[in-house]
Known about the structure:
The complex is a heterodimer of chains A (114) and B (115). Chain A is mostly beta strands and 114 residues long. Chain A contains no helices and 11 strands. In chain A, the strands form 2 sheets. In chain A, strands 2, 4, 5, 6, 9, 10 and 11 form a 7-stranded mixed beta sheet that branches. Chain A has a 4-stranded antiparallel beta sheet with strand order 1-3-8-7, with no helix packed on it. Chain B has 115 residues and is mostly beta strands. Chain B is built from no helices and 12 strands. The interface between A and B is medium-sized, with 25 and 27 residues.
Amino acid sequence: DAMVIQNPRYQVTQFGKPVTLSCSQTLNHNVMYWYQQKSSQAPKLLFHYYDKDFNNEADTPDNFQSRRPNTSFCFLDIRSPGLGDAAMYLCATSRDRPGYNEQFFGPGTRLTVL
Amino acid sequence: AQTVTQSQPEMSVQEAETVTLSCTYDTSESDYYLFWYKQPPSRQMILVIRQEAYKQQNATENRFSVNFQKAAKSFSLKISDSQLGDAAMYFCAYSEGGGADGLTFGKGTHLIIQP
């Protein structure tokens, strides 16, 4: 089945130790997104790629970066995780630009920062 | 900036009954889309239903329907004949028609189905 896969499902890191979360998709969608979802809060868009075109939200901290080496894969790098970065990170894809297009979500990676 | 508000952190309904989840939003745009997404426990978020702002007719998908009141900026979700599998977090979301950004979500409503 075509899907959005996130690895790992659970990630534990230490304060200040760089961490990378990965997302892959078999849907061949043009757009990939990263959302941060803290406990009892709404998912918040961090950035998205339309093909190779990177779009960063204005309030996404510089500590967060992303790479999309090809259509199928997208990575979220957190350079120096702080305690406030503990959250669920959701990857999503859509066939084309946002708007009417449905977004397909992965199961998420839950990040714990010790 | 657009905002989405869900005022009900938690709702409970008896199996087979009908429940309505509320959502209001704020935007100055005329071209936009509204969505309800469902996030079951420990599973990925999936689309339940969507509505184009320029369409007056309310969207329906089987047991799920919306009441879209554009002037009031209200977008509620009605679930008829509630089933145990409907238990989940429900998120209301907004997207601009121009396609510049991703979704803006509300904080969600936790729906409990009582057997």
